[in-house]
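Hi,

Apologies if this is the wrong queue. I'm a grad student, and the batch job for Transcriptional regulator from Nocardia donostiensis produced an output file that my downstream script rejects. I'm not sure whether the problem is my script or the file. Here is the sequence I used:
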Amino acid sequence: MFRAWDDEYGGGLRRKAVVGQLAEVNELLGEAHPSEIRQRLLGTMAQLAETAAVMAWDRGQQAVAQRYYVLAVKAAREADDPAFCAVALSGVARQLLYLERPSDALELIRLAQEYSAGRLTATAQAMLYTREAWAYGKLGRPTAFRKACDKAHVALDASCPAMDPYWINYFDSAELAGTIGGRLLDIARRDPSYAGEAAGYIDRAIAERNRKRRRSATLDQSNMVEVRLIQGEIEEACRVGHTALQVVEQTGSDRVAKKLARVYNRTGEFVKLGAVTELRERMRPLVAATA
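Support response: The file is valid. Your script probably expects a header line. Output copied below for reference.
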């Protein structure tokens, strides 16, 4: 439930509820329990801490997110759950990638892959491969980036959703497409020849997204705006931009706000065009509100 709220409305809106549950579990762990019950409580703590970390990270509260991620990793290890420990480590890696520390992120991703070897479902493996690809893209290693993307595709093709734990259910074909598309966009900012491929992936993500995943859909659409601007398809960029803005106001996501600011800055190159001017006028108060 908490994860669904977070993805629909953005981090922060329900974090107090998660933190409250986390405090209750921590209190229970201070009591004596049979080993099986204690292990289950530790597993619950790990999952609640990871959810709180994601919510804090999405609100731009990096230090808070890191503390919850560390708690999630520690609790998952004590619960003897290497699969979820790998997920928590991958969350820290994602945070590092946003902070432009790809080398550190890659080390954590490799650690997660090694620690959880043989204990992950194919879906979770695919997710880790996309994080690996992300790091390679940031490091300017296109061949390694391609290989990691290919591994992610193969793993997801081999997945069996019925075998997946609930915490990886978000990672589907739309998430794969959106993640790879976003990473190709990163590269396209340096080399516009990648823009067409990025657009193909992002378009697939937009088409396949669950409508309840508002934040992810908004990020997809914002990425598409930027891709179309890189391609010089200004009218299409503006059309998608207006669609994205319908949802931006309904989220409390720092990531969405930062993405909006990036797109707004990119549109500054085309201010003489009427369609762009109209889009920027709609964006301006939202950008100012989150500055």
